[in-house]
Amino acid sequence: MLSVGFTCLKSRQNKAGQSPIQLWVNVDGKRATTILSLRAAPQEFQKAMKSKQNNPILLYCNNVRERITEFFANSSYMGIVPTPQQIIDFVKSGFAIKQYMLYELFDDFLRIEKSKIGHEIQDSTYYKYCLVVDRFKQAVPNKPINQVSHSDVLDFKYHLLNVAKLGTGTLSGYLTKAKTIFAYAIDNDLIQRNPFRQLKIQKEEVEINPLTKEELSRIIQKDFRIKRLNQVRDCFVFACYTALAYSDLASISIDDIKVQNGVHFIQKNRIKTGVQYTIPLNDIAMEILQKYNYQLPVLTNQRYNSYLKEIADICGINKKLTSHLARHTAATLMLNLLMYK
């Protein structure tokens, strides 16, 4: 519900006895205010607002009220209930209707995501959103956010397929992140419907064959004669015995290592989810931790994957070594251990 009112700020009276007129707007219990260009003596203002006859002060305030009421009604008819601050912005712009644009949405969303780096998301997640925004801008021109349609979403999808040449797995990641941006717009009452709502995002089902015991042993026993390769190998092997994600490897410290009944284990919260995990450590995993003084030498994700490819080539392993593969290998090792106990 909308309510509009005016207050003469007596405390801010100037030497001529004139005080500024404050406009206040309430919408569903939320309030915003601004100072209008009109000034009046407090007593004159009170008298003018109560008068049944037209006068300059009353006409001015009624005109502002009518413009606000019309703006609110038109916006509500379009399915968008303006906030008090949006109404104030409308008044301050000289009653010019400012439309929220698509690229403004992108800027606002990225600014918020950037502020989350280090405590809610990783910088890699932020940069993925940046890539999604860049691709969307290449496919869809800037337009009012409420005019973005399902056809624009399809243009974005076909751009990713035909111009960017993305595979199914990467494509689904881009579409999911773009959908998240528009979900943010809905949550903040910027649009009423997500243009992605009709789009079915297919996720690529990739069959991952874990390393065999023989393949893992080959990697463990190999001396690569290059410090960086040996370090990456150790991090990868550690992941194969703990099922830890890449982001969790770098966060381990000696404070996370616990001992109970002679068994060493890691107890810590996962980086991405914040959920606590407890993972027992076998002799090989403990040796790796002790080798690096309980601080694994984890490289950037891109360099880590590059060195893993080199390790696979040197060891003659015809599988793509990734953090995901390491976790699958860990799951297989744990399952086999339970079966043969």
Question: Any chance you could write out the topology, listing elements then pairs?
Answer:
Elements: E1 2-8, E2 19-27, E3 30-40, H1 42-50, H2 56-77, H3 84-92, H4 102-115, H5 123-139, H6 150-162, H7 168-187, H8 213-221, H9 227-242, H10 246-249, E4 257-260, E5 263-269, E6 276-280, H11 283-291, H12 301-315, H13 323-339
Antiparallel strand pairs: 1-2, 2-3, 4-5, 5-6
Question: Care to give the gist of this entry?
Answer:
By secondary structure, this protein is of the alpha+beta class. Helices cover 51% and strands 13% of the residues. It contains 13 helices and 6 strands.
Explain what the structure shows.
With 341 residues, this protein is an alpha+beta fold. The protein folds into three domains: 2-92, no CATH class; 102-187, Orthogonal Bundle (DNA polymerase, domain 1), CATH 1.10.150; 213-339, Intergrase catalytic core (hpI Integrase, Chain A). The protein is built from 13 helices and six strands. The chain has helices at residues 42-50, 56-77, 84-92, 102-115, 123-139, 150-162, 168-187, 213-221, 227-242, 246-249, 283-291, 301-315, 323-339; strands at 2-8, 19-27, 30-40, 257-260, 263-269, 276-280. A three-stranded antiparallel sheet has the order 1-2-3. The model has no long low-confidence stretch (mean pLDDT 89).
Structural class category: alpha+beta
Q: Taking all residues together, what is the mean pLDDT?
A: 89
CATH architecture of the largest domain: Orthogonal Bundle
Relative helix content = 40-55%
What characteristic shape results from the CA principal axes?
A: elongated
Q: Going across the major beta sheet, what is the strand order?
A: 1-2-3
* Number of strand segments: 6
| H/E topology pattern | EEEHHHHHHHHHHEEEHHH
Query: Might you state the CATH topology name of the largest domain?
Result: hpI Integrase, Chain A
Number of helices: 13
Q: In terms of per-residue confidence, which ranges show pLDDT below 50 for 5 or more consecutive residues? A: none
Radius of gyration equals 31 Å
CATH superfamily of the largest domain: Intergrase catalytic core
